[in-house]
Design goal:
The complex is a heterodimer of chains A (269) and B (243).
Chain A: E1 7-22, E2 25-39, E3 47-53, H1 59-66, E4 74-79, E5 84-85, E6 91-94, H2 106-115, H3 123-136, H4 152-166, E7 170-174, H5 182-196, E8 203-208, H6 211-217, E9 220-226, E10 233-240, H7 256-268
Parallel strand pairs in A: 3-8, 3-9, 6-7, 7-8
Antiparallel strand pairs in A: 1-2, 1-4, 4-5, 9-10
Chain B: H1 2-19, H2 27-39, H3 43-71, H4 78-86, H5 96-102, H6 106-131, H7 135-143, H8 148-158, H9 161-183, H10 192-201, H11 205-233
Helix pairs in contact in B: 2-11, 3-6, 3-9, 3-10, 4-6, 5-6, 6-9, 7-8, 9-10, 9-11, 10-11
Classes of the chains: A alpha/beta (269), B mainly alpha (243).
Amino acid sequence: MNANVYTKSAPLITAEHVGLQYGEKTILRDINFCVHDIHRPDMQQGQVVSLIGRSGIGKTQLFRILSGLMKPTAGVVKIDMDQHPVKAGEVGIVPQNYILFNHRTIYQNLKIGLDNAAVKLTESEKKAVIEDYAGTFQLTEHLKKYPAQISGGQRQRVSIIQQVLTGNKFILLDEPFSGLDILMIDKVIQLLLKVSTLHETNTLIIVSHDIENATAISDTIWLLAPEEGKEGATIVQEYDLCKMGLAWQPNIREESSFQQLITEIKNKL
Amino acid sequence: MLTLIIIEVVIAVAAWQLSGGGLIPTPSKVLQALAKIVQDPGFIDNFFSSVVLTIKGMFASIVIALIISYLSIVPFFNPIARFVVKCRYLTLTGLTFLFTLWTKDGHDLKISLLIFGIVPFFVTSLLSVIDSINKQEFDLCTTLRMNSWKTLWEVVIIGRLDQVFEVMRQNFAIAWMMITFVEGLSMSEGGLGVMLIKANKYVQLDIVFGTLVIIFLLGIFFDYILGKFREWLFPYTKLQTRS
């Protein structure tokens, strides 16, 4: 598959002049970015974008604003082909601590996603869909277990699939690589790539401080940092990794240009 | 751990036996009194009277407390729930006369006082369960497109049922402690509390201690049963979260 052949079309998520202020304190200032629908020949290519910033800069607040769970004090976030203002429930979230319903088994947790999906299925159809996803994402043997009985990585997988089953095309992930060992990080990357290619408009937005892993998986990177002499974090740099020839390459970490980019990002944060 | 408990109990009982003989009856005398109490023809009636009254009072209290606690999520009802919590500091003795006028017989009086005494403690514990819910659970429900009722059901009601059971188990001790007090207000139905009052009146300290041992052991037994019941009904509560 040639990674250089792609086109970008309609905007799917747009942040326009988004700002957040608590009293006199500015947390986020004039944030602007746009995620476009990427097309690649002969495949369903979703979007994986990352917002990278240092800890405590306001990433979690931006996460909540993008998901519609929090209203910005300025600006607007628009989603989907018709670019309507985002409402809570239209964007799925996978929090850092992978919140699940602890009183329900993994099967029931996944079924909740389908119960509330726009497409209504019969119980047997739901069972078939859950078993299919569980098989694809290696969760079949855990379906009867409770969340407390599975590992952090497995909980993260359940959390992501739960959102996919709800029918959310846009999924926000808060620090998806945090607290995972190197093998688990590889698995998570594979999972996210798989989810992103399930549907053409599937869009994953990763909010993270893990520069290397976020860059390795993304097609676009935005750096969130404060500008000198100004209060509040904003987007200080955009990297279009498709244009730079650094997107969708499994062995990207071995490329010297990738390592140079990581160094450049580190210096800018 | 069990060995340590047994050793400490043996030491405590031995010390009690050796230091006894004065005002407080020795363990051997308490044991003899215990045998006498159990063989008394009225004991079973008294025993069941107390247990049934406690269960009735507990059941009614938990229903009322749950309604108040769940309603506290609605801003209008929150101050009411917070007031009920403060009612822990009201003394029942001062309200007994009022309750006597309001209720039609001794049984109703005992149940009403029991409920009035337990509900504030239940509400206190239940509100702390609700307050400790991680806000991200509500966010999750929103992203899963659940409406407010479904969210309330999933997170607050079903999701915290195991903790409600735990609250019930912990507060059973309060109900059990109060039973002896309310039984003294209307002695016609008997009960363990009545047995205690009568024994106290005639300074039968061995019977008093024997009855206290029965009340103590029953309390521990109910605590254990409710704990086992919780594990059986909500198996996930026993699980340790893996990292």
